[in-house]
Design brief:
disordered N terminus; D-Maltodextrin-Binding Protein, domain 2; 2 domains; 19% strand; 343 residues; alpha/beta; single chain
């Protein structure tokens, strides 16, 4: 009996030591970023709507704003971002190696990526679906017309498997042409090297607007796969993953509360609403308990605005394509974007 008790105690001590070792080995990415003084974010080089240079040479885009929001949350300054441009195929290795703190490459949220690759998805920040764009001269007006088509695809994505599943289920075939990046893909498509390109609807709309003759191209109305997209972080630091996830929720929550880039400072100083004061860190210690400054949400909104402002700038009313909010409207307005309770 005494021997069994001693063995059990030793086992417990061993578990405790192992737990201590694991705790010591666990990464502290918030500290790493603060010590470095800059947030490193992987983005596309030139995908309008997501990440591209404007006429003044500034990097702008929907996912660019999420990078700036993270910098504002962790470092208190949305300008402290180092953008690393990369392709989709380069993104996950760069994240897992620690080259970047987050990748914002419009990755589609899938079970394999979530459970096998050691990733944590933020959002979904954008709900959409995959569609096809064709040359009008092809005569195609619906998906059934694409049997035997040549389709340009970005290497390293999941789109080819999505198309394969859709076509095989309908006894259709296609010829894939693997392209390194989206810039090359649309150039080859415009030259007629492939009949079809595919992407999520907002990106197709933005890309069509930049072709030489946008009116010569048709985005087919049917979507062949759903797409839930968002930035991605590694899943080996839960505190950091929580911060990334709640940055997105902060953007949505701000829109729900009517807090904007223009009025956030006034709301923080003048609002007597306990929910707003708690959200903006005027009351309570939510930020401190997350390892952030208490007013981190104020910094985020001052840097990029709320979710609706980000969407409107890059996809909605203020953008070239003027895409309706649709599924990306707030849940209060019939969409899917919502934030958990801020308590």
């Amino acid at each position: 009996m005494l021997r069994r008790t001693a063995l059990a105690a030793a086992a417990l001590l061993g578990l405790g030591a192992a737990g201590d070792a694991m705790a010591q080995a666990a990464p502290d990415q918030l500290k790493t970023i603060r010590d470095r003084g800059v947030f490193r974010c992987g983005v596309y080089e030139n995908v309008p709507g997501l990440s591209a240079l404007d006429a003044q040479g500034n990097r702008v885009g929907f996912d660019v704003d999420y990078c700036r929001a993270m910098a504002a949350a962790v470092l208190g300054d949305g300008s402290k971002v180092e953008f690393r441009t990369m392709t989709l195929a380069q993104g996950i290795p760069a994240l897992k190696s620690g080259e970047v703190d987050m990748i914002a490459l419009a990755l589609t949220y899938t079970i394999q990526r979530d459970t096998e690759l050691g990733l944590d998805f933020v959002g979904p920040t954008l709900y959409s679906g995959h569609a096809f764009m064709v040359h009008k001269r092809s005569g195609a007006t619906k998906l059934a017309d694409l049997n035997g088509a040549t389709i340009c695809l970005v290497a390293g994505g999941i789109t080819d498997t999505l198309i394969s599943d859709y076509f095989r289920a309908r006894n259709m075939t296609f010829r894939p042409v693997a392209i390194e990046n989206t810039t090359q893909m649309y150039a080859l498509y415009e030259e007629g090297r492939c009949d079809v390109v595919t992407s999520e609807v907002p990106f197709l709309g933005m890309r069509r607007s930049r072709l030489r003759n946008p009116a010569d191209h048709l985005i087919l109305p049917e979507m062949f796969a759903k797409s839930h997209m968002g930035p991605v972080v590694r899943d080996d630091d839960r505190a950091y993953s929580h911060v990334a996830r709640w940055v997105h929720f902060a953007l949505v929550n701000a829109e729900e509360m009517g807090i904007t880039r223009e009025n956030v400072a006034r709301m923080a100083s003048e609002s007597r609403d306990p929910a707003i004061r708690r959200f903006l860190g005027v009351e309570g210690e939510i930020g401190i308990k997350m390892g952030l400054a208490n007013d981190w949400t104020q910094k985020v909104i001052a840097a990029v605005g709320n979710y609706g402002e980000i969407f409107d700038r890059h996809y909605g009313a203020q953008s070239v394509i003027k895409l309706p909010r649709g599924l990306n409207a707030l849940a209060f307005d019939g969409g899917l974007q919502w934030s958990p309770t801020w308590r």
